[in-house]
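Thread amino acids onto this structure.
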């Protein structure tokens, strides 16, 4: 798992070490320079004669970059420092000069921004040390002008964070130089994992500078090994009911495909059984695709409610809203015939329109940004889809506060917010952005919740971990189904058994 701590937590961890005279900046700068040297070797084959620009702002972030520049200059790299503020880290600047680095002071020559940007763009590597965890708001002044003028040309290593991102919330309030690599110190920061800033981070390298971070991380990212470690493997004593039955309310005559996709994914993820609840015509289509599915009513260990179901009751809903409501009542433990006590539920697509005002944490709502906006508006928030896309963490947290449910907000980076925990998963290729991919996720998650049904109801934070795990499996299956080109949703469901097998094989490795 990758864990990210807030700026306040990182500063608190730094404080005693700095007071004790531990040379944190030396450690950070040396690790940064070592990484840049490795990148230069990989990209140019030789270090000597290569060219690096160091963009340095007023604070310690600029200090890190300048000290790293000094190390590079001593290795034969032609280093140019570009200063964007009339203040600069004195020690860093002196070290760079002593090592033979050149200095361009943009604060003293603001008219040169465009020319300097053009020169910097031609360098082998640009180190972005404009601002780090001390950033407040959008990048300002000369730093903003320089970043805007640089555009998307150069190969960039961000120092600690891409300058100007919302370090704690992952927002992108203004211009940010997109990084190819980010070298971050002490611990990952939330904004490096959260969208939309996560898209500007490139490869993330976390450098140990000796900080001890206690307390829960602000944001976590599960890795495949985390999911492998908790995957329920059936034993001799297991049978289909112990493995978990998924109740599926999905699809209508108008949208039968969603039912097929969710059912296929649930079966392929290893459900003990999938019970399909829906109109006969759709049930026939589901059975034609997956004869393992059962249509008789009975007890379930999790519900998946809503894929391919319209948001309002009308002739086209084929009775699915009533079945969905009954499923949700059963998941709350209110309908004894369909479960023994409460069980987890995945509420997707049309199901989001009839989920009650307040939910238990074992209900996982799986909206995309547009659907989350609708959920929030129902709770009185004046919010637009663009607001959700600009600040996914803020709005997913708000939806969790308002509904009590665990929220899985879908996107290129999927954000999951549960009781006291937040995950940000970036596991899927962009080819997964295709109709039906969400139905497949709902099926995968339904089976994973059914396999740990009682535990999930017991532990308010576990639904979020399982939901994040489902995003991992979904993303890995999409990678597996990705031929290097288009990915079809049903192919993702078909790729799940191989994905799980690979996860399990990695347990022993
Ligand atoms: N302490 C240590 O030894 C260690 C520190 N470490 C390193 O230090 C970094 C933190 O350093 P820091 O605290 O000096 O803050 P930093 O990120 O450089 O920014 C502050 C400066 O930026 C400016 N500024 C702010 N917002 C701005 C904006 N929007 N647009 C433009 N400018 C803006 C602000 O200016 P002001 O607002 O005062 O005008 C201020 O001068 C951290 O990320 C890590 O790299 C590591 O090496 C570990 C050891
Ligand atoms: N650019 C992207 N990169 C990776 N995954 C994506 C991207 N865009 C969307 N996804 C994923 O694809 C799925 C789309 O789900 P959804 O929007 O509900 O589609 P549908 O309703 O058609 O099934 C989600 O799991 C989402 O996280
Ligand atoms: K930076």
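Threaded sequence (509 positions):
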């Amino acid at each position: 798992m990758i864990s990210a701590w807030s700026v306040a937590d990182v500063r608190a961890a730094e404080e005693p070490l700095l007071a004790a005279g531990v040379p944190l900046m030396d450690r950070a700068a040396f690790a940064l320079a070592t990484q840049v040297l490795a990148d230069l070797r990989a990209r140019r084959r030789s270090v000597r004669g290569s060219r690096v620009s160091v963009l340095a702002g007023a604070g310690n972030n600029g200090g890190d970059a300048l000290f790293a520049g000094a190390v590079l200059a001593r290795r034969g790299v032609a280093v140019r420092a570009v200063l964007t503020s009339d203040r600069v880290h004195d020690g860093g600047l002196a070290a760079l000069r002593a090592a033979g680095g050149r200095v361009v002071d943009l604060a003293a020559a603001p008219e040169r921004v465009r020319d300097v940007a053009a020169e910097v763009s031609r360098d082998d590597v640009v180190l972005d040390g404009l601002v780090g965890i001390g950033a407040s708001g959008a990048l300002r002044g000369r730093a903003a002008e320089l970043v805007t003028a640089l555009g998307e040309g150069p190969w960039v290593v961000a120092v600690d964070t891409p300058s100007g991102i919302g370090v704690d919330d992952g927002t992108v309030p203004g211009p940010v130089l997109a990084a190819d690599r980010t070298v971050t110190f002490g611990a990952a920061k939330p904004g490096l994992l959260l969208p939309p800033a996560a898209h500007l981070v490139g490869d993330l390298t976390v450098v140990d500078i000796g900080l001890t971070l206690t307390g829960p991380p602000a944001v976590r990212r599960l890795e495949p090994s985390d999911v492998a470690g908790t995957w329920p493997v059936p034993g001799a004593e297991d049978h289909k009911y112990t493995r978990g039955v998924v109740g599926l309310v999905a699809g209508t005559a108008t949208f039968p495909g969603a039912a097929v996709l969710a059912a296929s994914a649930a079966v392929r993820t290893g459900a003990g059984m999938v019970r399909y609840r829906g109109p006969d015509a759709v049930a026939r289509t589901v059975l034609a695709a997956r004869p393992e599915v059962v249509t008789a009513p009975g007890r379930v260990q999790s519900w998946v409610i809503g894929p391919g179901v319209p948001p309002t009751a009308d002739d086209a809903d084929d009775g699915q809203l009533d079945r969905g409501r009954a499923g949700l009542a059963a998941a709350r433990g209110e309908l004894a015939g369909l479960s023994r006590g409460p069980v987890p539920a995945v509420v997707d697509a049309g199901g989001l329109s009839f989920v009650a005002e307040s939910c238990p944490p074992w209900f996982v709502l799986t909206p995309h940004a547009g659907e989350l906006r609708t959920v929030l508006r129902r709770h009185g928030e004046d919010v637009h889809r663009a607001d959700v896309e600009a600040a996914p963490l803020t709005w997913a947290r708000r939806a969790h506060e308002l509904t009590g449910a665990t929220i899985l907000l879908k996107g290129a980076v999927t954000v999951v917010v549960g009781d006291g925990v937040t995950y940000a998963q970036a596991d899927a290729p962009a080819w997964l952005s295709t109709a039906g991919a969400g139905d497949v996720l709902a099926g995968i998650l339904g089976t994973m919740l059914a396999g740990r049904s009682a535990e999930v109801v017991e532990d308010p934070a576990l639904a979020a971990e399982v939901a994040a795990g489902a995003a991992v499996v979904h993303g890995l299956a999409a990678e597996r189904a990705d031929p290097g080109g288009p990915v079809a949703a049903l192919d993702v469901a078909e790729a799940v058994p191989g994905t799980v097998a690979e996860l399990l094989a990695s347990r022993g490795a």
